[in-house]
Every structure is written in C-alpha cells, then in structure tokens.
C-alpha cells in the first residue's frame, strides 16, 4: 500500500513539473499569440489587443496563467484553439482514435514478429540463422521510419496499387487496410529492438541453473524454451515493449505526415506551424500522461508475470 501511494505521489509531482515546463516553454516561444488571435493586421488596435489579452488572461503573470490553465485542464477544459476556434478537447478526441489505432496495429506487429525473431535467434545462437537475424534487425533499427514509409508508399501504393496512399479508413476492416503500411513503417525499428532484447534475455537464461536442471530431467528442447527460458525472460521483454509503446504514442508524427493520417502527431505539427499554443500544450501534456500511464501499468503487471519481482517489492 505504501509503495502504491509513493508511486501515485511521484506521478503527481512529475505531472505538475512536466505541465509547468510545457506551459512555460509556450510562454517563452517567439511571437505574440495576440497577433495570431486577431489575424488581420488592420485590427491590431491598442483597444483590440487589450481586449484579447484580457479574454485569454495573457495580461496576467506567468504563474497566474499557469494556474488557470492547469485548473481548467484538470476539469477537462484544455482551452480553445487559436486556429479552429473550437475546444481543444473535442479536436483531440476526433484525432485520437486514428493515432491509437495506428499504435495498436504497430504494437501487434512488432510484438509478435519481434518476440518470434528473438526466440528463433536465441535458439539458433552462434549459427548462421542467429547472425542473419541479428544483422537484419540491426539494419532495420538504423533506417528512419520516414524512409521506410516513403519506400512502402512508392512500391506498394504507387507502383503496385495494393494499398491506399493516404488516410486512416472508416470502420474496422477499412481501417486495418489503410493502416497496414503505416503500421509496418512505425513498427520496423521497434521490431528490431524487441527481437534483440528477447534474444539477449533468453541467451542469459539458457545458462541458468534451473534450465540445466530441467534438461537433466529429460525435458525436450521446445518445452525447456517455453516453460523455463522464455517464461523467466518475460520481465525485460514486457518492459521494453511498454517503453516502445509509450514512445510510439508520442512519436507518430513522421509516419502520420508521410501517410496523410489525421492523428495527434499531424495535429501537433499543424499547431506548431500555425502557433496554435493551446493545442501544442494539450498534445504535449497528452504525451506525458500517456507515457506515465503505460509505464505504471507495466509496473503493476510485472509482479504478475514474474513473482520474484513482487516478492522483492514486498520486502522493500
């Protein structure tokens, strides 16, 4: 119980600090938000500027502005977009499903393929298959996702016409169809990371005493791999998968831009280009919260996957 309370207190402090940094960065950004709010230079009269500053609390000190913004954010009010003149929360809620669907699709791909390749490489360690998998995943990890995306679009969409060039689709089947290439582009680098972590963790487990004991009882290779080696390697693998998912939730900008997907990443790019500070602040805050939620869920799940972790937590 005490550990859970400490964790919640740490999350709260982290969120407050991160939110203040985000707000202060927007406050210090070049350019006056009033000029973007008023728009037409002919309307930049002293009276109009003063009215807009008072309406958006821009005439208040930084700490007062931050407190107003944070208080509203805690109630779900993320402000009004400078560009769209709509509530930021409603704009984000319309864009979030596309990003979550893309990340979920990519997660399935890199988890299944990454763990599969890692297990295969660990079982065939020291052989040509192992070297081929390690070499190919190392190469895949070094290729930027936007390069992978452009290659996929050029070949599978433009030349072959198998997949659409842009858009996220409507409905489950159509969305899967539209997001196949973006999900592949987003998952390539993650697949390489997960496969290498899986291989390394399993190789370490192969030399452990409990694996040698299982072999001495006459247990066959596949049973040893899945019951004793992979089972005890789940902790680092799940942790790495969670970290990758958390980074993906905040890192779909490039892939969404390449494939023309109206998600959170493309919304952030548009907001930065148009100096739409309320949207930028809200999206950055979402990224921080998403990362914290994912990592916290993993912390709670790890003791279930590996009882040794739970016993260490209780003793501490």
TrEMBL record:
The chain crosses the membrane at residues 12-29, 102-123, 132-156, 176-194, 237-259, 279-302. It is found in: Cell membrane. Residues 96-298 form the ABC transmembrane type-1 domain. InterPro entries: BPD_transp_1_N, MetI-like, MetI-like_sf. Keywords: Cell membrane, Membrane, Transmembrane, Transmembrane helix, Transport. It is a multi-pass membrane protein. The keyword Transport applies. Pfam families: BPD_transp_1 (PF00528), BPD_transp_1_N (PF19300). Belongs to the binding-protein-dependent transport system permease family. This is ABC transporter permease.
